[in-house]
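Model: You mentioned two targets. I'll fold them one after the other.
Researcher: Yes, keep them separate.
Model: Target one:
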Amino acid sequence: MDYLSATIWGGTMHRLTPMSVMILALLREGDMHPYERVRLMRARRDERLLAITNGTLYHTVGRLRRAGLIDEVGSDREGNRPERTTYSLTDAGRDALITWLRRELSIIDRPAEFRIALAEAHNLESADVIEALRLRRAVLDEAHVSHRDGLTGARHKNVPEQVLVEFERQEVLLDAELRWIDSLIDRLEAEEFPWGPSAFEYSDRYRAQRKAAQQ
């Protein structure tokens, strides 16, 4: 199973999956029914981050509701369409989302989860993002130094280059990510662009996207 982080609510252990995180993040934008969530995720090209299927989404919604992370707040039916149940994010769901994002932003050995955490990092305050990225940077720096020193030592011992190409690639990727993290932290600290869950709430693009998903 791809359960990633665990939090206890009311004595019940509930582990969030990437799909759980995406659903909780969407509900932080406002109450939605599952059909709207699917349309929004596809409009935002979230398939690049995880597989989106109706079955997985509805199953995840049920798990989140049973865990008390989301609540049913109403239902409606239009014409011959199936009845649609609208859900809302609970306080526990909000706390679970924030806890997961903080955790996954700082961890370096789960690249797929990090991409989702980064995509939803705007659900955190900028100070929280900076703190998590600084933790991540410290671990990445250690890994970068280790790879760099290992490559230098291997070459001094005349280890054939053909067996070092993967180590070389990883060292280059670590160096690039360190420079990217430094740049992002600098931009966040300088407040070069709006940040936070409400930063794009009233943009024309956001309103049009929500309207299209609700139809």
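Model: Target two:
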Amino acid sequence: MKLLLSKRLRLAALGVAAAALLLTACGGMRKTTTPLATSLEKSGCMRNADTLLVMLPGAYSTPEEFEREGFVRAVQDNRVAADVMLVDAHLGYYNDRTILERLDADVVAPARSQGYRRIWLVGISVGGFGSLLYAQTHPGALAGVVTIAPYLGERVLGSDIANAGGLGAWKGPLGEPSGGNPRTPNETQLWQWLRGYVGFTQTADARPPLYLGYATDDRFAFSHRLLAAALPPERVFTTEGGHDWPEWTRLWRRMLPTLPLPGCPG
């Protein structure tokens, strides 16, 4: 019964989060498909790489933008022995509450069956939100998570955390925001899970290493700073600018060489 209730809360929250993002983004809602559309970029130096980088785009971005903006090229330039999967996980999957189901059934499970031993999620904006939700709800499934400018929920929830003295001191939600709208359950649950990164040392915990990148003038930077304070400094990266591809590409090129990923032979 608890599992069923928890699942319902997660699904309801995905819809609320998607609605919030609709207010801050522009463009038309795209239709979802089953399975998720994906494309695979094989490693240039390893025939049978056992590491997979799964890239999740922003709300209205397309997977091809990872190619155009140099994300895939950066993997090659850094001689990382990993394949790259570009996933068309647009906002529609969050709006219809199927993103976690589709990621598991169409991306992670098939990758495991194909022999990938280490799977990383690399998410931008709402893709970062989805990456964190997947890590939260599928303990032990991921080798690592990279979030760049992630959407992390309503500002009022971040304000509660800040007013409590930060993520380490925050004990949970203070109640409903003004106006009677219920607090998004899954955003609250996500922050409670993120609280586990305060002073976290990776031992027997199934929590994957988490890397955060954001621009200092990003519209979500208030929440980013709250999360950054809970992470080791070497896993937090910042740059000047706002919420767009030039900043995200700069961050990715700085973050990639620091990730514990296998290198090309020789």
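Researcher: Noted. Anything on target two?
Model: The chain has ten helices and seven strands.
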